[in-house]
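Hi W., the zinc ion complex you wanted:
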Amino acid sequence: MTLNTHENIFYPPVGIVHITDTVGKLLEPHIAEKQGIHINTSAQPNSNPHLGTVTTLMTAFAIGEYLRSYFNLPVRLTFDQLENAPGEKQTADGIEYQKSLGDTMGDRGISLANEYMKSFRWVFDFLSQLTDIPYKICSYDDFQKKPAFRRNLLKILQNKEQFSSFLSPTDKVIRFRFPCPKCRWVDKSSKTTRILSFDEDHAVLSSRCFKHGEHQIILSEKSSDFIDTNTPLRDVAKGATLIEEGQHSNELMVMCDGGDWAGVWNMQVFCNGITRLGYPYESLPFRFFSPIITDWSGAKFSKSLYVKAHAYEYLPEGLINFEKFIEFYGKSGFLQLWEEVRSWPEEPKKLFRNYSIDYFQLMLQK
Ligand SMILES: [Zn+2]
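Structure:
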């Protein structure tokens, strides 16, 4: 039996597929008087994108293209660049410190974030051209300046006991953190972060640098002091910010993230957090999750920095590193991948499903 034949690709019915025959129908109750659709996706530029990242970005554009035709509404896309993700790490005084990807210099004299964003931009330009969907990149630095984001962070800080129970169930510490103004090292776990004072409109926070001692910031809607957040805190405050932006622009906000954020995370962190901030459930952005690309064992195919060296040695390098992908499979391989991902939103059974790395390897070999 050969595995790479169409007869051997199965789509057993799963949950949502039982109740809808098109993806568009899921959004109909939310579209009402909306004048457009705004897709949002994000990633940490901590390496060149690998296949899993590329298929997530493609899924975002494919959903945009599909919804534009289904609702006959204009679609635009924003990519949230998470250059605040960790680049360099070190332990000092028993505390783990990190420097962000935006503050960590690479070999070529520019930050790691700027270095890796080059290949992300290539992917965006290519997909934007193919779909005619305009895109914009929003850095974390710009996102954290948004008044709605800061207002919601403040609200979480003011109710930190309640929020820490589900944003940080292990140690109950909400990661409000900010870099030392002199050397840019950040106390990763917020162990030295102190709330010096707060009222309804603002909070004064302090943190300690192992070299330069204590430093402070003011968190308020109007202050411009940079504030870093870890993933759960950002996810909740970001979701709330998108709700307000959608209300302002009268667009349906649609988030598209990797499938590993679906399920318990989405329920317990995202939906739970936003409704506790006071936003009604029906106002939440509609959230899609791209199919997970799995390795042979069913684990998420990860960036090589999260698994041991040579973990994916058995695969062609083109599937691991985006730069090598183009070298291996050419633009025609990239187009073949796009045509595959593009077909997913057309049929719920294809979108609400995962795919193995072997599936792509066989597909690209044809
Ligand atoms: Zn310092």
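The chain has one domain: 6-146+235-365.

W.
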